[in-house]
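Students often ask why inverse folding is considered easier than folding. One informal answer: many sequences map to the same fold, so there is more than one right answer. In these notes we will look at a single instance of the problem. The structure comes first.
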C-alpha cells in the first residue's frame, strides 16, 4: 500500500515514524543502561529521513546528514565540551533549515492532503527535537542552567519532555531554567510553538475552505 503513495508522502511517513519513536517510545525505557545509545541511533536516522523529505534527485544533499551524524557520534565518544556545543548549534541550524523548507512547501501547496498534514506535524515534532538538543547542550555545559526535579537530568527523555512542555506552554514547573541563556531559549520555544500552531492551522483551514469553494 505504501508503494502506491507518492515518494514525498512515503518519506514523510518514515520521518513521522522515527520522530514518534524518538519522542514517545524510547523514553519509556529511560532506566535502561543503553538508552542514550538508542537515542543517538534514532537521531542519526532522523537526520537522514529529514533530508529525504526535502531533497531533490541529487544525492549531494546526503552530505549534510553525514556531517551531522559524524559530529554527533564524535561528541558522544570523545566527550569534548566544545565539540558538544558546536554539534548542538549545528544540529539546531540543520533542523531549522528543514523546518523552513517544509513550511514553505506547505504554504505553496494548493490543496490540503495527507502530505500537507504529515509535513505540518513533522515540522512541529522536529521543532521540539531541535529544542531538546539545544537544552541538552546548555545543560552539558552548565549543570546549574536548569533546576531538575531530582539531583540531575538523567537522559535525553528529560530534555524532550522539557522541550515539548515549553512549546505547549503547559508550564508544569518540575524543570525550570536557571540562567539567562536557558530562560531566553525557553521563551523562544514557547513563543515559536504557539505561533506555529496558530499560523499552520489558519493556513490549512484557509486552503481547505478555498479548495471546497473551487470544487463547488
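Output (designed amino acids):
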Amino acid at each position: 500500500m505504501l508503494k502506491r503513495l507518492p515518494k514525498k508522502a512515503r518519506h514523510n511517513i518514515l520521518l513521522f515514524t522515527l520522530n514518534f519513536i524518538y519522542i514517545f517510545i524510547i523514553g519509556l525505557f529511560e532506566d535502561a543502561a543503553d538508552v542514550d545509545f538508542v537515542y543517538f541511533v534514532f537521531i542519526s536516522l532522523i537526520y537522514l529521513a529529514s533530508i529525504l523529505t526535502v531533497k531533490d534527485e541529487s544525492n549531494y544533499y546526503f552530505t549534510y546528514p553525514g556531517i551531522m551524524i559524524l559530529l554527533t557520534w564524535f561528541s558522544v565518544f570523545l566527550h569534548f565540551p566544545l565539540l558538544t556545543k558546536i554539534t548542538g548549534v549545528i544540529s539546531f541550524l540543520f533542523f531549522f533549515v528543514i523546518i523552513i523548507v517544509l513550511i514553505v512547501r506547505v504554504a505553496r501547496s494548493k490543496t490540503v492532503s495527507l502530505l500537507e498534514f504529515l509535513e505540518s506535524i513533522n515540522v512541529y515534532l522536529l521543532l521540539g527535537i531541535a529544542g531538546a538538543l539545544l537544552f541538552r547542550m546548555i545543560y552539558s555545559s552548565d549543570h546549574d542552567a536548569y533546576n531538575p526535579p531530582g539531583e540531575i537530568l538523567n537522559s535525553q527523555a528529560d530534555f524532550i519532555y522539557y522541550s515539548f512542555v515549553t512549546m505547549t506552554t503547559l508550564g508544569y514547573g518540575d524543570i525550570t531554567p536557571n540562567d539567562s541563556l536557558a530562560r531566553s531559549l525557553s521563551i523562544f520555544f514557547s513563543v515559536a510553538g504557539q505561533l506555529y500552531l496558530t499560523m499552520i492551522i489558519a493556513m490549512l483551514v484557509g486552503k481547505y475552505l478555498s479548495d471546497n469553494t473551487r470544487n463547488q
